[in-house]
UniProtKB/TrEMBL annotation:
Residues 43-95, 120-175 form a coiled coil. The chain crosses the membrane at residues 15-34. Keywords: Coiled coil, Membrane, Transmembrane, Transmembrane helix. It comes from the Bacteria. The lineage of its organism: Bacteria, Pseudomonadati, Bacteroidota, Sphingobacteriia, Sphingobacteriales. The keyword Transmembrane helix applies. This is Chromosome segregation protein SMC.
Length: 302
């Protein structure tokens, strides 16, 4: 009886041992399962965070590109800031591409992105402020240009008025004949002169004229130009003839002389000879001085 109980006890001990081993294995498997699950969850978490940071970096870079695309002339300092930001973005992208990050590396990357986001936000604000400043400067420039154009227009208009006034003054100062008379003269060999009316006895024409009182007239010598038109309507051109300007037109003269103007009402005399080549008909004499016509007279020869 006693020998039968002894094998039974040994069998029971084996069963208990096997149960303990199984429980230990179960506990180990459970521990390993939850440990692996926790590790997997951590990897998934880190992977999700990397993706989120990649998206955040993309947004930051897009904001930087948008600010840089503005047609704004940057200072050297802002150019340096932009270059620094792009280097930091590339550095973060490289770090995120290099496999799995540790928790410490992940935290540092998150802090770098936070700082970069602040920096780019400030950079964008500076660009916007610079854009507004440029817009204000452009407005001021346009207003100044408009003012300058207006002043230039007024100056041009004033210059035109001055020119017109100068022309009027010049015209007003020009000498004008008060009365003019023309005589035909015959000159004897003795030098004696007689007034005649016939063309074949005429040796020269004498033009007598006075000058209208003119306070604006310049006292002193004035050139006098004669244009003599024959009965056929042709201008007589002598060997001493030339060109002069009158009323902004270039004309040819028959004879040129000068008088002394003193604004004293005196009478002036000019003799013009045609070498005895006078024809029957009307002769017209027009006098010019100071760029304007002074007056004219005519004489009929039989």
């Amino acid at each position: 009886m006693e020998n039968q109980e002894q094998p039974t006890r040994k069998d029971s001990n084996k069963i208990y041992f096997l149960i303990a081993v199984i429980l230990a294995l179960l506990g180990t498997n459970t521990y390993l399962f939850f440990k692996d699950k926790k590790a997997n969850d951590r990897i998934v978490t880190i992977s999700d965070e990397k993706t989120r940071m990649q998206t955040e970096i993309d947004k930051i870079e897009a904001e930087l590109d948008n600010a840089s695309s503005m047609n704004i002339k940057l200072s050297e300092e802002m150019k340096t800031e932009q270059e620094t930001a792009r280097k930091q973005i590339e550095k973060l992208r490289t770090a995120l591409r290099q496999g799995q990050l540790t928790q410490g590396q992940l935290a540092k990357a998150q802090e770098d992105i936070k700082q970069l986001k602040y920096f780019v936000s400030k950079y964008s604000s500076d660009i916007e402020a610079l854009k507004k400043l440029n817009a204000n400067l452009t407005t001021e420039r346009d207003e100044l240009k408009s003012t300058v154009d207006s002043v230039s227009f007024k100056a041009s208009d004033l210059e035109k008025q001055n020119e017109e006034l100068s022309t009027k003054v010049k015209a007003a100062a020009a000498l004008k004949t008060g009365n003019i008379s023309i005589l035909a003269l015959n000159v004897k060999s003795s030098g004696k002169e007689n007034t005649v009316t016939r063309a074949n006895t005429t040796d020269k024409l004498r033009i007598n004229f006075s000058i209208v009182n003119n306070e604006l007239g310049v006292k002193g010598l004035h050139n006098i130009y004669l244009r003599v038109v024959d009965p056929s309507g042709n201008l007589i051109i002598s060997a001493n003839g030339g060109m002069f300007n009158s009323d902004e037109e270039e004309l040819q003269y028959t004879y040129k002389t000068a008088i002394e103007f003193a604004n004293d009402g005196r009478t002036y005399t000019i003799d013009w000879a045609n070498n005895g080549n006078f024809q029957k008909g009307n002769y017209t004499v027009i006098l010019y001085s100071d760029g304007y016509s002074m007056g004219k007279g005519s004489l009929a020869l039989k």
